[in-house]
Amino acid sequence: MVKTAPGQRGPQLRDRRPDGLGARAMRGATVVLGGQAGKAIIQLASVVVLARLLSPSDYGLIAMVITVVGVGELLRDFGLSSAAIQAPSLSREQRDNLWWVNVGLGIALAGLVCAGSGVLAAAYGQSSIGPIAQALSLTFVINGCATQYRADLVRQLRFVRISAIDVVAPAVALTLAIGAALLGWHYWAIVVQQLAQAGVTLILLVLSARWIPGRPRRDAPIGGFLRYGWNMVAAQLVGYLSNNVDNLLIGLRFGPVALGIYSRAFQLLMTGVNQVRLPLTTVALPILSRLSDDTVRFGDWLCRGQLMLGYTLVAALAVVASAAEPITAVFLGPQWAAAAPILRLLAIAGIFQSLAFVGYWVYLSRALTADLFRFSLLGAFIKITCVVVGSTGGVVGIALGYAIAPAIEWPISLWWLSRRTSIPTRQLFGGAYRVLAIASIATPIAWFVVEWGSSWPAVPQVLAAFITVVATYALAGLLVPRIRRDLAGVIDAMRLVRGRGESA
Q: Where are the coiled-coil regions (predicted)?
């Protein structure tokens, strides 16, 4: 047998050629985004309904556990899903070995969390945390079993199946969670939701993939995958810890109620943000991996991805930043009013994070995980410093620090990446500055409109902010030729999605 590793080509599980890649990528994006739209509706329903059935303290207790348990999820994956997706070739035996590694890590981490649950409860001073951590540790085992099944579907570009699973599983989980909440189970309703979603996802992935892992094989080396995964998981751990230092500080200093309010604002924002970032990453990673040696096409797709994020996601975040109060009232209810200023600051953070997000695609698609880890250390230092300093101003101060950090980090991230590999740096900076300029104009105008209509009901205020932002973007397109070309490119991409454009 020919031995293979990431970056080498082997004799089995051959990939499709990248002919017609543009059209295929866009069709894949259509399917994934369509599925994510359904998932977003379900997640939004989860936020809206459960926020009215459960208390901030319930969410705070779960957030305390998730902040710590989330570290285990990164170790459980160990970057092996991305390693399998980006590898030019993956034999069946290697895939089986990766499955066993993920399952073994899941079992080990579940045992570790169960053993340390008492220490975790003592650290937060909340006795309820121990049983919650023990129950959620089961997700390590379930997700460990599911990791390579999902990676296999992504490698095959079977986005219809993936999208269907990503809709059905959370729908079933939400139904069970609502039932548990109505029965008065309090925070256990969220635990039920997490376990149900993981379990249903695993069942559907196994049925879709139609393969059963064989026994581990020594003659199918996975050392290259582990090296890729180690660098990636190290970077992810650094990023995760820096991204969650806000939750950790709030939980330790201000208690479960404050953390519950903060976590609901964060979840409300990320429900929408992830529905754009994650599916685009699902589509972009295998495509860019296949174009990694074609500098021109790689750069073209990278710039396309940035503009798609900039003229969709950043525009939506501008609406959130300008209308945080009515959005909080509509989706969470008046009892969550304290989340509004936090939501506004987190939306601003999301704008800057989106400007640099394409860099993450480059690191993964070109297997630059060691460089990603090194930059993550710098990013973590910036974020932790900003959040710790901001914590002197309470929960809102922490949110402010969280917003300032990516504003400092994103230009550094593109410069750093340009020193490690070939990317169209000037075009990426130019596109980012145009996106940021429009958002900087649209957000305060929309905020003024919302304030002017403060006596209106919440829904008309949100609609007014949306219309104002859209009108600002349209006017910018009419007055500025370069922005008009950007918008035309986004529209062309959408036409390509529907099969009317040309393949890349």
A: none
Number of domains making up the chain:
1
Provide the token pair at 324: 């945080």
Task: Please give the C-alpha separations between residue 61 and each of 106, 186, 427, in angstroms, as whole numbers.
Answer: 23, 11, 45
* SS3 of 175-218: HHHHHHHHCCCCCHHHHHHHHHHHHHHHHHHHHHHCCCCCCCCC
The verdict on residue 6 lying in a domain is no
Cβ–Cβ < 8 Å for 417, 394 = no
16 part of a folded domain: no
> Can you spell out the DSSP letters for 365-394?
HTT-HHHHHHHHHHHHHHHHHHHHHHGGGH
The answer to whether residue 225 sits within a structural domain is yes
With b meaning 16 or more CB within 10 Å and e meaning fewer, what string describes 182-192?
Answer: eeebbbbbbbb
Alpha helices (H) in 291-393, listed in sequence order:
295-308, 314-322, 324-331, 340-365, 369-390
In a domain, 7, yes or no: no
Query: Per-residue pLDDT for the chain (504 aa), expressed as one digit of tens each?
Result: 333 333 333 333 333 444 455 555 555 555 555 666 677 788 778 888 888 888 888 888 888 888 777 777 777 777 777 777 777 777 787 888 888 888 888 899 899 889 888 888 888 888 888 999 999 999 989 988 888 888 888 777 677 788 788 889 999 999 999 999 999 898 899 999 999 999 999 999 988 887 788 787 777 667 777 777 777 677 767 777 777 788 888 888 888 888 888 988 888 888 778 767 776 776 677 777 777 777 888 888 888 888 888 888 899 999 999 999 999 998 888 888 889 999 999 999 999 988 888 888 888 778 777 787 788 888 888 988 999 999 888 889 999 999 999 999 888 888 888 888 888 888 888 988 999 999 999 999 999 999 998 889 999 999 999 999 999 999 998 888 888 888 887 776 555 544 433 333
Residue 27: partners with Cβ closer than 8 Å, 6 or more residues away: 497, 499
**For residues 50 and 44, what is the distance between their CA atoms, to the nearest angstrom?**
10
Give Rg (Cα) of the chain: 22
Residue 70 belongs to domain spanning: 21-497
Distance CA 28, CA 45 (A): 26
